[in-house]
Amino acid sequence: MKVVILAGGYGTRISEETAVRPKPLIEIGDKPILWHIMKIYSHYGFCDFVIPLGYKGVLIKEYFAHYDLHESDVTFDFSAGGKRQIHQRLTDPWKVTLVDTGKDTSTGGRISRLGAYLADGPFMLTYGDGVSDVDLAELVKFHRSHGKLATVTAVQPGGRFGALRLGKEGVVQGFREKPKGDGGWMNGGFFVFEPEALAYMGGDDTMLEQEPLESLARIDQLVAYRHEGFWHPMDTLRDKMTLETLWKTGGAPWKVWRS
């Protein structure tokens, strides 16, 4: 099952960092948050990634172009014309497809542009700026059990986010904005979609969080997987510092992998 990680936005709420690099390359510890997200997925055996690019996307291409070099020991033999020899490869068994989807394209439009890569079966999707300890194997099992077109991971981080309105058996009935700490469930990313859901993603100016998800909810084709564990976005510099502290103190709940 392929994994889409949205990585094309401007990241304006953390402009202190995104002035020079795209948001998914902002580091937690000494690794980009994109790397952390990919490690979560690959821990559960999902290693085939499709990443739509936009703002400063060339830097993400350069990161993966040199990933093998950065993660391994290397010998440069300049007496032999600069011959390079890699030792002790420490890279993960990832397949990474990077797709230019336009600098100003919205989230739904970016997914639509990936249609050629995603039409052959169900796919997973999340945002390139949030981490969680959600059990992805259980998420996929849940998605397969209900037979609907889409599953969204619902989380309860607090009162500053929009909330999902859930009906019987977790079917999403709609959305409401910014509950005041009332325990409402919100969209935490970590989706699973059937390929038929691509028809709802719209054009370049379509936000995934608006018409596509609203349309799926109206026809009872969007179901929430309730996750009561850890979830945290990196929207602001304060968020980054929170995640950085968790990582450096060894208390990062999203680190579900061993090495």
For the terminal residues, how far apart are their CA atoms? 23 Å
Beta-sheet strand percentage? Answer: 25-35%
Order of helices and strands: EHEEHEHHEEEHHEEHEEEEEHEEH
Could you give me the name of the CATH homologous superfamily?
Spore Coat Polysaccharide Biosynthesis Protein SpsA, Chain A
Major pleated sheet: 8 strands, mixed
Question: Quick one: how many beta strands?
Answer: 16
CA-atom Rg in angstroms: 19 Å
Looking at the structure, the CATH topology is Spore Coat Polysaccharide Biosynthesis Protein SpsA, Chain A
- The helix/strand class is alpha/beta
Secondary structure: helix percent: 25-40%
* Overall spatial form: globular
Known CATH architecture: Alpha-Beta Complex
- Domain count: the total is 1
- What is the C-level CATH assignment? Alpha Beta
How would you state the average pLDDT, rounded?
Answer: 92
Number of helices: 9
Low-confidence stretches: none
